[in-house]
Amino acid sequence: MTKQSFIKGTMILLAAGIINRILGFIPRMTLPRVIGPEGIGLYQMGWPFLIVILTIVTGGIPVAVAKLVAAAEAEGNEARVKSIFRIALAVATVLGLFFTGVIYIGARWITDHLFTDPRVYYTFLCMTPIVPLVAVSSVLRGYFQGRQNMIPTAVSQVMETLVRIVAVLAFAYAMLPYGLAYAAAGAMAGVLAGEICATLVLVFLYKRERLTPERGPIRAQIGTTRRLSRMANLKQLLKLALPVTGSKLIGSGSYFLESILIVQSLALAGLATTVATAQYGALQGMIIPVLMLPGALTYSLAVSLVPSLSEAAARGDMKTIHMRLRQSLKLALVTGAPFAVLMYVLAEPICAYMYAQPGIASMLRMMAPAALFIYFQAPLQATLQALDKPGAALVNTLIGSAVKLSLIYVLASRPEFGILGAIVAITVNIMLVTILHGHSVVKLLKFRMVSGDFLKVGVCMAGTGWASTVVMHSSWIDDGLLRFLASCCTGMTLYVLLALVTRLIERDDLFRMIWLGKRFVK
């Protein structure tokens, strides 16, 4: 079993995340050209319900498994590691199979009564088998993350993305002659194929790890560990998993209600069903993924933070906790800032060249300022979970969800706002939840970010925005795509130079990142 340090584990997940985000945008860029915004709306409409079910089935189990496995391994208690894994796998599998049956039986009623467009039924059926697959793979990922071995998670993510790219486009194109409903269902079947591949990869790597001779027999070290019964391990697992599940369930439940409220509110605003479906598809299937593209780093940081902070907390090492949290938040700030600027100043060419839909640029421009809050949110929430404060994250998420849903109902149903009202509500929710998470972490750890870093980032962002705007809107070349690429490169280059000049990034940090990248490639 290969255990990585916090930084190395983050780098591995980051590399996989970057590959996944880049590759994942191939179907995101091409699928709208195949099935259009309306087809994307049908494809996206079933996702919120699926996420609610996946939250109930898996929810906090990966986090709980990672925390308990990390703690048991710190004790040298391999017998407890094995017990935790088996119990978690049994719980997730039973829940996954049960809810799969429930969804399949109730699919027709759900799509007829909860959604404004009953054509989503076929997509709904195709996504049902995803539930038990994710249930199994989430436990395996939690197990490997608890051992601070991020390679299996990274490999499975890349393989899932590669299979999904081909399958989504191939199945959607093959089913297009039968209508948009079948094409959207074909795209979902491609997602299912990717999940099957990811699960098989994780199972294979788990079996290979268990057979590795250097691991030795599974046993606890006498005199250094606690022997807990299966029931005690189950209680600990549920004690950790249930609050996290509750917190995530509020977020996913609000996402589900959001999807229903948006299309219902757009209908109240006077939009036809097909137009409302298309606008919802543009928001959830095109704009939100662009905002989340730089989130590969913050996802990697959040996954690596849980076992790292759990170990530090078990030792009472507050210095390491503060150091890891400061590293994570500064990385999220420094790396996310230039992307937020580019999404704001280059919204129209981004939407035009990625989706051939320049008309949705106003959505991206409105949400771009919230991007930095998105990148901060994941490490902050991971910190609360790792330090046994998932209840605080739950309350914060509940407050944000209540505000978001209220604003969607009030704004999106008014003809003068429409979909832009929904965007305002989602943006407010992102900012509010991040601020509340930050307040909870500060109160818990007496933690403070270096205020000068925010000022330096502001200077770098201003320079990046100015340079990108000048290059994009000057007439030095007729080809718009070349101007767009040159604008992005110029803005990014100036950002790095300003970050070095202001010492936001130290030269040694830059060299260290390059060195880590070379080590990872090797």
Q: Please describe the biggest sheet, giving its number of strands, its sense, and whether it closes into a barrel.
A: none
Helix/strand order, N-terminal first: HHHHHHHHHHHHHHHHHHHH
Protein structure class: mainly alpha
Strand content: under 5%
Poorly predicted regions are 214-226, 512-522
The number of helical runs is 20
Oligomeric state as shown: single chain
Inertia-based shape: globular
Helicity level = over 70%
Radius of gyration: 23 Å
Distance between the termini: 18 Å
**Strand elements, count:** 0
Q: If you average the pLDDT, what whole number results?
A: 81
Name its key features.
single chain, 522 residues, mainly alpha, 0% strand
Give the topology.
Layout: H1 6-45, H2 47-57, H3 61-75, H4 78-113, H5 121-127, H6 130-146, H7 151-175, H8 180-210, H9 230-268, H10 273-292, H11 296-315, H12 318-345, H13 347-355, H14 361-367, H15 371-386, H16 390-412, H17 419-445, H18 451-473, H19 480-501, H20 507-521
